[in-house]
Design brief:
Blueprint (H helix, E strand, L loop, with lengths): L1 E7 L5 H10 L4 E3 H7 L6 H10 L12 H8 L3 H28 L4 E5 L14 E6 L2 H12 L3 H9 L4 H4 L5 E4 L4 H19 L9 H16 L15
Parallel strand pairs: 1-3, 1-4, 2-3, 4-5
Helix pairs in contact: 6-7
Protein name: CoaE-domain-containing protein
Organism: Leucogyrophana mollusca
Length: 239
């Protein structure tokens, strides 16, 4: 099974691409959804957060008050790192279980939708990395329109993230979303075709546990132990 990391920048259309994969019956593991699930009432994640930050971060119904927690960690890097140290490992475990579930079911591809795939270093563990891209000016205009924000506010939000031009340097495939929805659908179709080709016929063999485990071990070691990607210009490769 080919494990595909999907990422992009804010307002580039990553969620639309993710939904397009789902519509074509390709399983998608959404890290944002998992990040909410791992801090539901009764989970170890929520218990650890309450233990560290107190009950003030809970709503009356016992769920996490994300707004309150956000205000606590917003300007405090140490506290923000503490929250990440609780949530990120739990999300990683949930992703691994999700991948295992789809592998057991015999899926050819599984897509892991992670906004911070590059920043968090998770791209190293993916068989392929897909980045949803549009030029920064289009990204800015879409963000302004979506959030009804000023150019200054939208620019500040974009500047707080890794530029999309840098993310594409890590991409094996790029889905360019500079045109219409129909154009984007064609991009996704082409991308899926290339991913299925990359998975090849050997994905069936990897379903058998000994071969699958060895194959996964090889990919993980190859990615994690010093594979250095060459810099790729943002106009150099399009799917």
């Amino acid at each position: 099974m080919l494990v595909v990391g999907l990422t992009g920048g804010i307002a580039t259309g990553k969620s639309t691409v993710s939904n397009s994969f789902k519509a074509r019956n390709i399983p998608v593991i959404d890290a944002d959804i998992l990040a909410r699930e791992v801090v539901q009432p009764g989970t170890p994640g929520l218990s650890q957060i309450v233990k560290h930050f107190g009950s003030s971060v809970l709503l009356p119904d016992g769920t996490l008050d994300r707004k309150q927690l956000g205000s606590i960690i917003f300007n405090d890097e140490a506290k923000r790192k503490k929250v990440n140290s609780i949530i990120h490992p739990a999300v990683t475990r949930a992703i691994l279980w999700g991948v295992l579930k789809y592998w057991v079911r015999g899926h050819k591809l599984v897509v892991i939708d992670v906004p911070l795939l590059i920043e968090g270093g998770l791209w190293k563990w993916m068989g392929k990395v897909v980045v949803v891209y549009c030029p920064p000016e289009i990204q800015l205009q879409r963000l302004m329109h979506r959030d009804q924000s000023s150019r200054e506010d939208a620019s500040a939000r974009l500047n707080s993230q890794l530029p999309i031009s840098q993310k594409v340097e890590y991409a094996d495939l790029i889905v360019e979303n500079s045109g219409t929805i129909r154009d984007l659908e064609e991009q996704v179709k082409t991308c899926i075709s290339k991913l299925e080709k990359a998975a090849g016929w050997s994905w069936r063999l990897s379903w058998f546990p000994p071969i699958g485990v060895l194959s996964a071990f090889w990919v993980l070691c190859w990615r994690a132990l010093g594979r250095t990607r060459s810099r790729k210009p943002s106009t150099g490769k399009r799917s």
